[in-house]
């Protein structure tokens, strides 16, 4: 039996206190990733309100577009970089699972899943795709009853806290907390005033909820709850959209209607001017909410949760236990329509995914255009070429390839340690090409037996300095840029927007810029190039890594690392593996090799730099697939005959 609604409401203060204290480290990292691109928030039922809140929050804090979708809306992938966030308290309904499967196979720039249950089908699906950000936040009140209550407040509160602490300021979150805490006491003067202000509305069968931009979430949740629990007929509109025809309802059905007006202090003038024009016989209740946009959002949600209970009680029903008809249970379990692309004869799922990544169109679309045979031929030619040689050396990128970018300062995983040791034991020489410095040497020294170090080269700062793993005096970590970069480094520091929104690290042969405060990667790229053009710098190379922009002299390149390791193997074959093979990715030079594999972004060259990972996988998981497909042979390693099919 579902919980009584009043029992759930009694735990809201506990839920908010939990949201203010729970560890949000992983959530903040995911928010930082999302902060530089548009975001699509996906939810259904009660979680759809949380999706609306996330989209609004994303737009407010990052100034990037935030859109809302239901699982049925998740169809074709976006051509532009897009953060996709799925929200589900229980993680078991068929719709969110269907959307998660679709999105995982589309391999979007970011896929994050915010879930209230660690042991759920949705969480299990996320774990099968390690590139997914699985964000688990089981609220202390446990599973909601029929309507989303504590999970909804908990989800939105932790999201607001994460966005403000990561991309805003701690003071902004403190202001939200101070404004919201009093509203969670059911006996507070504010809550009692809300109850008295709204009680006359429930004598009318229809409630029209008017809202401003900041109180929209409360209106959305009221519409959801009144409909789902059959509390009453409820319509919502913002104050200006109400003027475009929706007011006509009151002209024809005003005797059965009432108006609930939600607004913040900044929206009070428009609200009052609108309400003053309504017929005097229409009952009106005004709820003025806190001034801060994020506090208004949460306050409007709390108002919606309370109002649902008051309206239900006035109309003789418990919104937490409305009863579910048998046809409703059957509706709930209907699956989403199948959207799987038609299978193409003689094309495995891995091959279809590889072609889609490379061509930017599905195999079915290419077949319809008469262009599939060309791409099949290019893929098969590359794979056959890959299966032929014995590889005596392997050059690998580090961040995004050997370590997950989200945890790039953690220790190398046991699986990577095992594979690297196995390859070195087979006589293969390894070269690590990284944009970082001594931290990579220390991590690899800790991961590999000292007896293997002599066969590992590291190209620091994108190939500026190359040294054996055992050379503890490498790299040169001096903070004074070389002559080619000195003037540029000063000019970048003097650029006003970069000074406040980017972290600049100067090394002898590399200047690195990392965005902060929600600055998008494209904006950072544009700002850096503006300085380059102003300074007339033509003797440098600018590339993007998985987390930064790197500027190096024109003689510095990861191709230097390839040359260094190639000199150690005479005429043996060399395999290159990286994650940013598309220009201006910092693995572009590394993955122009004839035998080059990407674990993520790829170039448009059909002759090399393919991503042959399983569908729905990228990054470290694909690296491990590639390395596991190599088997020892005389003189080095080679790909197994049935590898990567």
TrEMBL record:
Keyword Hydrolase: yes
Gene Ontology molecular function: hydrolase activity
InterPro entries, per database record: HAD-like_sf, HAD_sf, SIS_dom_sf
Domain of life: Bacteria
UniProt keyword terms in alphabetical order: Hydrolase
Pfam families to which the protein is assigned, alphabetical: Hydrolase_3 (PF08282)
Protein's UniProt keywords contain Hydrolase: yes
PANTHER family to which the protein is assigned, alphabetical: HAD SUPERFAMILY HYDROLASE-LIKE, TYPE 3, PHOSPHOSERINE PHOSPHATASE
UniProt-recorded name of the protein: HAD hydrolase family protein
Species of provenance: Qipengyuania pacifica
